[in-house]
Amino acid sequence: METEILLSVVEGVTDRFTAAATAAGAGFDLGLPPEQLGQVSQAVSEADPLITTEAGQTASEQLDTGGTMVAGQAGLFLLFTVGFGVIALINEREQGTLTRLQSMPMRPGLIVAAKALSAYTLGVLATSVLLIAGTVLFDVSFGSPALVALLVLCVVAAATSLTFIVARLARTAEQASVAQAILAVGLGMFGGAFFPINATGLAGTLLDLNPVAAFTRGLGITSGGGGLADLGVPIATMLGFAVLGLVASRLVPDRGAGA
Prior knowledge:
By secondary structure, this protein is an all-alpha fold. The chain has twelve helices and no strands.
């Protein structure tokens, strides 16, 4: 493709240079008088080109170094932030507060839902603050605020779904903290929180399923001027991760219930 582009440019330039001579030769073949041949050559050489070019910048839909760092760190700290809801829930279970709450005339699921909602709200606020601070400090533009807000809502939903799994697997708050830290560092690191990671094949596909990587990719699209239709894959990835997290939380055994 590079060779074809180079040949097209060279041919276009040479055709432009030889256009006057070609027009004069065609006029001579048609039997035009010499004075008209000069006029034809001058008119062709002074004519405006049929195709004009204008310098521009191609949107790569990729963040620069500062933007990638801000997006990745926001995703990393988000995973730690939503973990506070899990730790609070397990602390209440250890202290007996959860038992008192469950004795009240309400569905037990509402207690977990309230903790998840508080973690979700905290995650949205914390991620928004980090992105705004990164925009100001690193002079990064993520594009449309409405689309960025949509991406934040989706990535926080994906991160919050992990808290349901940790809440069912961890027996103590210490176990929950360790599990949450492992998930946060693992997903954050492979999502590009510390340095960009590029891979192909199966490894690339697995990395693309990371909600932090999908969040960063979505911010790259909005930063390049992309619209809602262009965010289909990142949004589907983050929401699909959230759904899988919720399903997995219902399938794993609740170790904390017997603690």
